[in-house]
Structures are given as C-alpha cells and as structure tokens.
Specification:
Layout lengths: L2 H30 L7 E13 L11 H12 L2 E3 L5 H7 L6 H15 L5 E11 L2 E10 L3 E6 L3 H17 L7 H4 L3 E13 L10 H12 L4 H4 L23 E9 L6 E9 L10 E6 L3 H15 L2
Antiparallel strand pairs: 1-5, 1-6, 2-3, 3-4, 4-5, 6-9, 7-8, 8-9
Helix pairs in contact: 1-5, 2-5, 3-4
C-alpha cells in the first residue's frame, strides 16, 4: 500500500476518534449533571483499573514522546520518569540528555526489559465544561493494565482510560477506536472515596456493649486508657494517677472475601470508614471508601444512612 494512502487513512481515523471523544465528553457532562445526595460532602478520589490483553497495549511500537506530548496537550499531565535500573538511569541522566533519552529508556522498560514497571503521568486535569474541571491525580500503564485516579466521579476516570488507550495506539501511527479495543478488556476494577456527613458519629457503628465497656472500664474503672500512654519517672513508671480521657472511633475497615462459584476465582475487597482530620473526629463526618463505581458507592452509602436512621 502506498505510504501516502496509509498516512491519509490514519488522519481520517484520528478525525473519527476525535469526533467520538467529543461525543463521549458531552455524554459525560450530562451524566455528571445529576445531583448527588446532600450527605455527600465531596468526592475525594475515584479510580478505575482496566486489565487489557497485552496484544492491545502496543508499547513496543509506540512513540513515547508523541504519546507524552498528546497527553500533556489533552490533560496537562506531567511525565513521571519510572524507577530506572542503573543502566537505563545512566542513559537518561547523561548531561544534556533531554526528554527523548528519558522516553527511550522508559519505552525500553515497557517493551520487555522490566515488564512490571509502570509508565506514569501525574498532576493533570480534565475540563468537562467552561466552569467544571476535574483533577487527574495519576495515569499509569503497565504491560497489561491502565489505571486512572481522579478527584471526581469514576465515570471521569473511565473516560480517561478509553482516551489514553486510543492515544497509545495513535502514537504508533496505527490509530484504533475504543470499540475495537474493548473486546480485549479482561477485567475492570473500581475504587471510590467520598467524604460523607451522616449526622451519626462513627462511634455508633460499635455495639452498645462495646461502647459500654469503653466507658465503664477503659475511661473509668480499670482505666485502661491511662495504662496505654507513656509512663513518667515521677510516677515510678506507673500509669499516671490523675487523668481524663475521652474516645473517638478513627477507622473502621471491613474485608469481604468473595468466592466466584462459577470459576472458583477468589478476591478480597475492602469497605472502610475513616476520619481524615483531627477537627472532624467525633463529628459524624468521615471518609467512606469502597471498591465500587461512584454511583453504586453512593447507593450503598444512602442505604447505610437510611438503615442507621431507623
């Protein structure tokens, strides 16, 4: 085939991909316009990891400089040089070596020298509309996965994954649309962290009996709280005799052990409620962390809040 014809077809494919990307962003804008419950104070982080068959992640054919440039233009991200072994580090740190040397070293790592090494971009942003910008904390890629973390809805992270893989293919000179890449997706994993205000202290997640023990024996009675702090020579290294203690629940973590009865695959997932600042201890404001997409995470939080209010 004539090289000019290949170049022309590639340009046409990129134009089609660009038009599809614009439609995706319009759809995302509509999806994000839906109100969230009042008890969701903020979204701290949402992330998604796509596991993709390695044949659909063409690191050995990519032009890393082109990919980095396109991602920088699209998301304003910064390339984070991977942890290079001495031989590669010497290449990229040579006096006068610019981005080309760093990209070359990183590409060699991804092409097989260190297949588990991540290629990472950080500190970016995605403009959803004129007045709506979502921070992109990280985009990282390795031999079989693409991971995106944002300070917004997981639907934003999901969109960025699709665009990044398309950009990866565009950097090879052989653009591919997401609909032709999607059949090679093997697994998707989500994570969401939101700050919530339930109006219910985290301490109330403990049983009445447990709270009673803390009050009667840890703070008073046997005074185990005083026994848990540093002991002074003035007290002959005994628990301090004159103390006043209160308590708050700082962190609650559940681990789910999920067994797939069809194929026998076993996985663990976490659900965590954690106070993030000293000022919010004992206030009923805490971070809720799950391994679910944003919408399902919010649904779970609503169900939990309703159950607690009964």
């Amino acid at each position: 085939m004539d090289p000019q014809q290949i170049s022309s077809e590639g340009a046409e494919d990129l134009q089609v991909i660009s038009e599809i990307a614009e439609r995706r962003r319009e759809d995302l804008k509509q999806a994000l316009s839906k109100p969230v419950p009042d008890f969701i104070v903020s979204t701290e982080q949402a992330e998604v990891v796509y596991t993709i068959h390695p044949n659909m992640l063409p690191y050995s054919q990519m032009d890393l400089g082109t990919l980095a440039s396109r991602l920088r233009q699209k998301y304003h991200v910064k390339f984070q040089n991977p942890s290079l072994p001495p031989s590669f580090a010497a290449l990229s740190n040579t006096e006068g070596a610019g981005d080309d040397a760093k990209y070359s070293a990183a590409k060699d790592l991804l092409a097989g020298a260190m297949p588990d090494e991540d290629l990472t971009f950080v500190q970016g942003r995605l403009a959803i509309g004129p007045d709506d910008v979502v921070a992109i904390r990280q985009i990282s890629m390795n031999s079989e996965s693409v991971h995106v973390a944002v300070t917004g809805d997981s639907k934003v992270a999901d969109l960025v994954v699709k665009e990044v893989v398309e950009e990866l293919w565009a950097s090879t000179g052989i653009p591919k649309r997401w609909d032709s890449i999607y059949p090679s997706v093997q697994m998707i994993r989500y994570g969401t962290a939101t700050k919530v205000d339930f109006g219910v202290h985290l301490e109330e997640f403990l049983s009445v009996g447990c709270r009673s023990f803390i009050t009667s024996q840890v703070l008073d009675g046997k005074n185990f709280a005083a026994r848990s702090v540093a002991r002074s020579a003035r007290d002959k290294f005994q628990p301090p005799p004159n103390t006043l203690a209160t308590w708050t629940l700082d962190d609650l973590k559940l681990v789910f052990h999920v067994f797939n009865r069809v194929n026998g695959r076993a996985e663990n997932s976490q659900f965590r409620l954690s106070v993030s600042t000293r000022d919010e201890e004992g206030t009923g404001i805490f971070i809720a962390i799950s391994e679910m997409p944003f919408d399902e995470h919010v649904e779970c939080m609503r169900a939990l809040r309703d159950y607690l209010s009964k």
